[in-house]
Amino acid sequence: MAILKIAKMGAPILGEIAEEVLDPTSQETANVVSNMLETLIDAGGLGLAAPQVYISKRIIILFRLSSREEELNYDDATNLLIMINPVIEPVSNKMGVDWEACLSVPGMMGAVPRYKKISYTWSDLQGKKHEDQAEGFFARAIQHENDHLEGLLYPQRIEDLQLFGFSDEVNRNLDLLNKGSFKE
Question: Is residue 77 very low, low, confident or very high in pLDDT (cuts 50, 70, 90)?
Fold first, then answer.
């Protein structure tokens, strides 16, 4: 296993649509996932998409958390979701706005609109197809990671640039920034 370099905003690969994985069961795919996991843990992140480590493949790894406040436990493999060639669809048009950050946009955060509830399909490393639904924080995290496969970074979805800034400043001023209950 290896810790991979994380692409930062401005790297061309982050603006490209990732290629489909032709064989989810291949050793190459397993190696990519293993290296992505080691990189994610080293960086202290919640999720990672292959383009973020300069690999143009439709692969996402993500820890299942129901809320931002839930403690992330990297040792609990049952909470790790590995998605190969994911497809995401909104369940309804209901949107919510909440704060996001990204390993590819270090030191920044912004208020991003996302669908509140989604359905998603994916293949696992054994090639088995899965289908599920997610809502709330976990749905937001899936959509965020899937955007990387579509060549999008979260700042491209921000509607009000007053709600985008350096993480330390935003965190210091959250009460003021959250006035007007934009999260609904």
Answer: confident
Q: On the CB side of 177, how many CA atoms lie within 13 Å of its CA?
A: 20
Smallest Cα–Cα separation from 103: which of 5, 1, 2, 3? 5
- What amino acid positions are annotated as catalytic residues? 145
Give the DSSP letter of residue 46. S
Asked whether the predicted pLDDT for residue 161 surpasses 70, the reply is yes
Return mean pLDDT, the chain: 95
Q: Where are the beta strands (DSSP E) in the chain?
A: 47-49, 59-63, 80-90, 95-102, 105-115, 117-123, 129-135, 164-166
Among 96, 105, 89, 85, which Cα is nearest to 155's? 105
All structural domains of the chain, each given as residue ranges with its CATH number in brackets, are: 12-177 (3.90.45.10)
Q: Are 71 and 129 in contact (CB under 8 A)?
A: no
Predicted model pTM: 0.94
CA–CA separation, 161 vs 112, rounded Å? 10
Q: How far apart are the first and last CA of the chain?
A: 42
Place of tokens 């820890």: 63
What pLDDT, on a 0 to 100 scale, did the predictor assign at position 183?
Answer: 52
CA distance 163 to 137: 18
